[in-house]
Amino acid sequence: MSAEQFQRLTREDFHQQAAALRPETRMLIDGKLVNAKSGKNFETVNPASDEVVATIPLGDVEDVELAVASARKAFKSGVWSRMEPRARMEVMYRFADLISENALQFGLLESLDVGKPIVDLLGANGDVAAAALTVRYFGEAIDKIEGTVTTTAADTFHYILRQPLGVVVSITPWNYPLLIAAWKVAPALAVGNSVILKPAEQSPLSATLLAQLFMEAGGPAGVFNVVHGPGGTVGKTLALHMDVDKISFTGSTAVGKLMMVYSGQSNLKRVTVETGGKSPQIITANAPDLDIAAQFAVSGIYANKGEMCSAGSRLLVDARIHDEFVARFAAKTKATFTIGDPLDPATTMGPLVSRKQQKSVLSSIDIAKQEGAQLVLGGRTPAGFDSGAYVEPTLFIDVHPGMRIAREEVFGPVAAVLPFKTIDEAVQIANDSIYGLAAGIWTADIRTAHKMARDLDAGVIWVNCYDLSDMTQPWGGFKQSGTGRDKCLETLLTVSQTKSVWINLG
Length: 506
Ligand code: NAD
Description:
- The protein is of the alpha/beta class and 506 residues long.
- The chain folds into two domains: 3-275 and 483-500, Aldehyde Dehydrogenase, Chain A, domain 1; 280-470, Aldehyde Dehydrogenase, Chain A, domain 2, CATH 3.40.309.10.
- The chain is built from 18 helices and 21 strands.
- The strands form six sheets. The protein has a seven-stranded mixed β-sheet, with helices on both faces. Strands 9-8-7-10-11 form a five-stranded parallel β-sheet, sandwiched between helices. A three-stranded antiparallel β-sheet has the order 5-6-21.
- Helix 3 packs parallel to helix 10 (231-240), helix 4 (85-101) crosses helix 9 and helix 12 (290-302) crosses helix 13 (322-336).
- The longest helix is centred in the first third of the chain and has 17 residues, at 61-77.
- The structure holds nicotinamide-adenine-dinucleotide.
- Nicotinamide-adenine-dinucleotide binds at residues 171-175, 180, 198, 200-201, 230-232, 235-236, 239, 250-252, 255, 258, 274-277, 309, 409, 411, 437, 475, 477, 481-482.
- Nicotinamide-adenine-dinucleotide (NAD) binds next to helix 10 and helix 11.
């Protein structure tokens, strides 16, 4: 079904399809669908209605051991790691096609699990299409990964092989469950690793389907395993495991730091972490079009209900245009976001992922008020949305750089306006953060644009735009926003290793 065909479906159609869903929730270990060895389960709840969607096996240490053994066995056998590269490519292409063919199911599962609007999932550039593209992109790279012959002395021959690491574990968050799983798993598979995916316990529904489709595409048993369960047991056991070669983690900065500790406490497994953010959107007085800047700024913070690592949650606005910008921002917010049932195609803002997250976001709003920030938009659960984890798009002004609302990641639809007087001051405020994921700059002055792009501590810079995205783009941050890069060909280097080979010709 294409994006255009989805456009014809109504809220009732989506609800009917959702009611008929019987998601496969078992784990996939060694090519088999299994329950937890303990027999225990946990429930995943629809944050739009507080209703239980499905029961999921509660994995534990025993299940992790089986998954690691299965991944290692598959890797050693060479069934995938030494498969003819072009045959591996064919599997990845078919895998990408199957994701697209199952778009409706993925869309419904993700929407029910985390409250994402169905339009954000099934649109032409939605999460499902982006996940399929990710698999295709890394599949296409398989026969372009080359070793090197180096220039050596006359009587020696030296070449460098690039080889897979072995067993790569992907630990993922709940804000883009399918897409981030694809970002992690696809490059690891492309270079020939075996993988274990441990999705966040809040968003388990799409993981098993993803792994099943890999097998349906011709992926061998044991190469793509899924283990469900809490981070503190399943995630920790994987990260401490002596037979895991790499952890590819996306989540909070606090847990990202633990990954590095676990690596040091076990086998020095490689670790890349993509973590939190408090990204600035800097609106200078000579922004080419304030209306367009306000439109991008609104989406930059409130898209995906603000549950985005790259959320532009700090609006640094030149004091001279402050009032005008705030007025336009408020008007654009009202015109852009319709809060509602995520399965209604008219909805552009759904509930947060859980009641716990709602409580945490509302508490950040209370703290901002107590610290003296002035609330000018939202700040509450929207009227009529008591069942469900909804929070209104919220805006604070009179925010100072020392306030918690200017420093801490809220991970919800909450923006803070910080005024500045000079470009240097804007850069100084922007960089005064433990994070450095992304930054937006609005200016018509080419020197200001390039100077800020150079001076801002961020892995991604957007000039006169925000959140533009492509597979070729390195995705990752500076400072405590992370150590790795997702998407882009560079990722392949982080799931493989070089081997230096010397031949004596003398
Ligand atoms: P989280 O850190 O709580 O959880 C992420 C994953 O880690 C989950 O699968 C969880 O089960 C697991 N985990 C938790 N404790 C663990 C432990 N002790 N050992 C091993 N695994 C453990 O993060 P979250 O709440 O799921 O996601 C939100 C965070 O993710 C935000 O900070 C957001 O900025 C970040 N994020 C970053 C990016 C990026 O690309 N930089 C993208 C998306 C989300």
